[in-house]
Amino acid sequence: MFRRRVIELGPRRYDQTVKTVYGVATLDGNFNAAGHEWYWDVNASYGRNKAKQVMHGNINANNLRIALGDPADCALVEGCVPFNLFGGPGTITQDMLDFVSFVQRDSSEQKSLDFTANISGALFELPGGPLGVAAGLEYREQKGRFDPDPVVAAGFSSDIPAQPTKGKYNVKEAYAEINAPLLADRPGAELLELTGAVRYSDYSTSGSTTTFKAGANWKPIPDLRLRVNWAEGFRAPSIGELFGTFSRFDSAFDDPCSTNSALDRSVANGDLDVIANCTLQGGIGATTRPDDQLSVITGGNEDLKPETSKSWVIGGVYSPSYIPRLSLEVNWYNIKIQDAIQAFPAQLTVTNCVYNNDASACDRITRSGASGDITGIDSVLENLSGIETKGFDANLVYRTDETGFGRFGFTWNNTFLTNYDVIVPTADGDQVVSREGTEVGSPSQAFPKWKSIGVLDWDMKNFGASLTGRYIKSVRETNADNKIKSMFYTDLQLRWQSPDFADNFGFALGVNNLFDVKAPACFGCDVNGFDPTTYDVPGRYLYARATVKM
Q1: Residue ranges of the TonB-dependent receptor-like beta-barrel domain (predicted)?
Q2: How large is the greatest C-alpha to C-alpha distance in the chain, in angstroms?
Q3: Which of 441, 443, 292 is closest to 374 using CA atoms?
Q4: Segment holding 453, helix H or strand E
Q5: For residue 463, what are the β-bridge partners?
Q6: Cis amide bond preceding 443, omega within 30
Q7: Which of 91-105, 121-135, 237-251, 330-344 is predicted with the least confidence, judged by mean pLDDT?
Q8: Of 45, 79, 84, 143, which has the fewest CB atoms closer than 10 Å, so is most exposed?
């Protein structure tokens, strides 16, 4: 294999022109009925977004093939100049570049139309207050298209290939909500109220459904509020998920059949079962490295079913009267999603195929008959069996009264992830993959068991400052023997509010990652060597912000 980066062509540059039109019209009013005030509104909105993108620095692979082939064939093509692939930097001439390069021109458009009508008011009095109700109707319409450059659509671009696509759907919805304050200002029931909601949805692409929601709030004493909520969810696939064009992206994953694999169970480590499976699957002889970028094909799927979910949230807020301005809040959640819309993870596809001879996984993989290397993985969107996650949030807020040195505040927000299971279908049934405490790698995503943000605030007259600490607990890579250490970032902000313009003008200076903490190494995280979705991009981030209110 011979590799040559065409640096003579210069860096890839993108120019994008976007034209957006958005309009909203609203009528509202109120009237009196059943001794209570009622409010109504009717709304309409229209939006259109048209974008044109131009990319410089791309190569036409078909023209490059001709220029690298027989010079006699090249001579028959207008503008063709034999391409010198073996010289050093600068040996590729402008005439060569003019023939093999092209300017990529893509375009896209999205349109939306939305009509809503709502009414809310109270029916009669309950011991705790008026019985509140709300209801409404909605009609939404979404359209979208994408037209790639013809060279890209033909598969000759050195960039990610894509095909033209378009699609549309509409949805009709109706909802009703109720708020019933059963008791108030009673011993053992400072407040006791029940809430409920129902929504009917009819999608042109996904059919119809009815979902419900119920909840309760209870204040046994003034300092304590307890609450519980149960809800059903329904999410129809979007235009992109349904009609998104097939496209390729380059992902880094570890092939156990490769002689350069870093996995414990691999040909490289002499695992006999893996050697037997790789022989059966045509993978013997593969030499790809764990950080090599390999092709993954993704895209929409018109056969997608809607996601459905059920969730519980139970929590409470304690605000002790003997410590004014202190608030403690804890919430526990349990969410189960069925038919979750996701792409089957590439690494899991490879390991399931090689380790388990799973036919459904092996069908997604294409290998070179000559080398045994993986040349592509089918990873279009599909309905996984589900996702189940549990955890709890714990938050503390305290603010002092005004002092001679200003006013101080402290906020501490914590998220604890106790369970995150992805349930994926295999030829032999469902497989449960536990993500909590792990880093997936490619595409990068971490699931730390604990994330925390603490903020110290100070305000005095027209000045203020904030010191923020961000903590991310350590995780372990799923496809590499590497523990990504815990991280702590520090941010600082200074503020000033104009005394002459009241609250109409303010200015702030800040820096994120004050102490320039380096992002932790991630061996399986694409090509950057770290996870930019979870950790800060290396370096300090400085900013200035001015706010003006008219």
Answers
A1: 22-514
A2: 97
A3: 292
A4: strand 450-460
A5: 460, 496
A6: yes
A7: 237-251
A8: 79
